[in-house]
Amino acid sequence: MALLVRLLPLALALALGPAATLAGPAKSPYQLVLQHSRLRGRQHGPNVCAVQKLIGTNKKYFTNCKQWYQRKICGKSTVISYECCPGYEKVPGEKGCPAALPLSNLYETLGVVGSTTTQLYTDRTEKLRPEMEGPGSFTIFAPSNEAWASLPAEVLDSLVSNVNIELLNALRYHMVNRRVLTDELKHGMALTSMYQNSDIQIHHYPNGIVTVNCARLLKADHHATNGVVHLIDKVISTVTNNIQQIIEIEDTFETLRAAVAASGLNTLLEGDGQFTLLAPTNEAFEKIPAETLNRILGDPEALRDLLNNHILKSAMCAEAIVAGMSVETLEGTTLEVGCSGDMLTINGKAIISNKDILATNGVIHYIDELLIPDSAKTLFELAAESDVSTAVDLFRQAGLGTHLSGNERVTLLAPLNSVFKDGTPNIDARTKNLLLNHLIKEQLASKYLYHGQTLNTLGGKKLRVFIYRNSLCIENSCIAAHDKRGRYGTLFTMDRMLTPPMGTVMDVLKGDNRFSMLVAAIQSAGLTEMLNREGVYTVFAPTNEAFQAMPPGELNKLLGNAKELANILKYHIGDEILVSGGIGSLVRLKSLQGDKLEVSSKNNVVNVNKEPVAEADIMATNGVVYAISSVLQPPGKALKYPMAPQSAADSSPHSSWYSTGKLFEAKISVQRAHRGSVASIAVADPKVN
User: Fold this and answer.
1) Percent of the chain scored above 70 by pLDDT?
2) pLDDT at 683 over 80
3) Whole-angstrom Cα distance, residue 678 to residue 499?
């Protein structure tokens, strides 16, 4: 038993394979990108890394897989160059970079990594060079030579004019009193600097970018005998104010300051955490209509949603953006953050005017345009940015605009602009009532709708919800885009105008002269009561022309056989409601007769049993009616009636009904009694009459 216990770990290790026993800790995003750059450069020899250089600049990036194929950084073209990976150097006459850099102290390493200006300024102080050359373990985030050169002249003058205080303090702020490698640099962490124990903010992004107070690591992990050097692209400075304090002292945030105070978000913005504030300037607030601004400022919930839509859940430095990426706000919406050259973009717009204002609890970017979330908008405002502006304009013309701009909880079923390509209806009482039936009495979300649900409209109608495999429909109209949920109202974008049901299937058929022969047939077959009561039917209704197109003898015999007539009519009735928007490529719909109907849709044309439908989606309270131009026959059950002999002359396709060479005519008379109605169908020889 003891032997078995000892062998179990070995057996388990063998079963899992070498990957399980030899795998080390997961690599950081920076290390993964460096590994990919090394992979792309290996054809040039050992320890060669592929580097993307932005054309026209000195900016270089180790390349990840996506950037390698796109050859772009922030939309700008790059060229690939090959250089020694960090920590290695060339050897004359040998391929690649086979030799590891010799270890020296921190001071000497600054010169090796290309930070000779930092080395020079270190020399000017009395105390720092001995520390960098002496014993100990330090980390230096060393600005590149270009970083020092890009400092404003007045800032640089103030440093070099007082080297043993200002310059020394600035350099010490770039130092940490221990060795910190990139695998320890975690997103959102703070390192204690050697200047008054002030914090240095570290952010390590999924794309491999690492920032130190929003300065990007250019080359990392250069080992020295007494520490490690990381080369960065900016000179960093101490951070003392939180986000709220910066808002308080900047004149350009006067309106934002008042809005934050009114919303109560000042507690969040002065507390702990790491946020990004996309801070709207006074100019941004001035760009929106005064009516909209006053409405939002006077509505605490809308105001809070507005401000939360400008706050990202983590700190996002500008240098981390090398391509488009989706970020989530505190409000819950998603913003597309990207870049175009040196400009940052929000949702494709270059609206950031000042970037990377660092705070103790995050970073601020100034923006010149408000990011108003849907949750703070009226239905009018939602529609202005959607493809339903024509429908909303109809509401305005009809005097119904208050339903779309007030605090009434409603859902607007707004047809796409393309629905009105042939023109809009005249505004009259009927149109106004139709528009009211496009407004549901409550604020809905489509994800909570269910099949068979009924919705009450402001026009007094009850609308039904139909859920199909690939569509969600309300009566004949189906949802064509994602919901837009506003402050009080929700916008459903619909693929057509709604036609609320106006009566039962029998009411619909009786009210349309095209179906007079079908109505008589239904009454003769005894199906009137069924089509008048509650139910869920899809009726493919043959028009008068469809009956008249049947061979005369066949129709004559059919109308004289009530049982067979009922059977044929039931084949035209599906046992569920199927509107055209729910059909898809092919649906096999079970009929009341028992056989299945094949219903398909292509290029907006509906077919049943491969026969085109003349008109779709005539809605009834207990079903939906499709007008068809032929009488459908059940599969394998074509009508078989004894036919009277016909002469060749009488078999013309243009003839009416013939029997024994004589013309017959179907006379359909509807006898309406005082209570109800009875239909009788008589086939008579005209000579007799």
Assistant:
1) 89
2) no
3) 30
Confidence of residue 584 (pLDDT cuts 50, 70, 90): confident
| CA distances (Å), origin 583, targets 160, 435, 547, 601 | 77, 26, 26, 6
Is residue 27 pLDDT above 50, yes or no?
yes
d(CA 307, CA 558): 72
CA quadruple 394, 398, 404, 405: dihedral sign: positive
Rounded to 10 degrees, the C-alpha dihedral 267/268/271/273 comes to 180
251 contacts: CB under 8 Å, gap ≥ 6: none
Task: Tell me: pLDDT of 14 over 90.
Answer: no
Rounded Cα distance between 382 and 401, Å, is 13
Point out which residues pair with 276 in neighbouring strands: 312, 363
pLDDT average, residue stretch 551-562: 85
* pLDDT given for residue 638 in this prediction: 52
Torsion angle, alpha carbons of 251, 255, 259, 260, to 10: -10
Give residue 520's Cα distance to chain centre: 52
pLDDT category at 623 given cuts 50, 70, 90 is very high
Instruction: Determine the Cα–Cα distance for residues 11 and 270; give it in Å rounded to an integer.
Output: 56
Q: Exposed e or buried b for every residue in 312-335, given b needs 16+ CB within 10 A?
A: bebbbbbbbbbbebebebbbeeeb
Residue with tokens 């929106």: 288
Looking at residue 24, its pLDDT comes to: 57
Cβ contact 472:446 at 8 Å: yes
Q: Locate 65 and state its tokens.
A: 């897989």
- Spatial CB neighbours of 123, under 8 Å, sequence gap ≥ 6: 129
Rounded CA separation 55/76 (Å): 8
What number of other Cβ atoms are within 10 A of residue 688's Cβ? 5
**Pairing state of beta strands 227-232 and 138-143?**
parallel
Tokens of 208: 């491999």
For residue 658, what pLDDT is reported? 29
Q: Considering only CA atoms, which of 483, 463, 462 is closest in space to residue 473? A: 463
CB 207 within 8 A of CB 322: yes
What does the alpha-carbon distance between residue 479 and residue 411 come to, in Å, rounded to a whole number? 12
Would you tell me the crossing angle of helices 516-525 and 562-571 to the nearest 10 degrees? Answer: 120
Q: What is the mean pLDDT of the chain?
A: 88
* Residue 621 token pair: 């309270």
Separation of alpha carbons 282 and 357, rounded Å? 17
Structure tokens at 469: 């495999």
* pLDDT at residue 250 is higher than 80: yes
List strands edge to edge, sheet with 586-590.
573-574, 537-542, 623-628, 611-620, 605-608, 596-602, 586-590
Q: How far apart are CA 212 and CA 648, in angstroms?
A: 98
Render pLDDT for 490-514 as a digit per residue (tens, 0 to 9).
999 999 999 999 899 999 999 999 9
Which of 448-457, 540-549, 651-660 is predicted least confidently?
651-660
User: Taking the CA atoms of the chain, what radius of gyration do you get in angstroms?
Assistant: 39
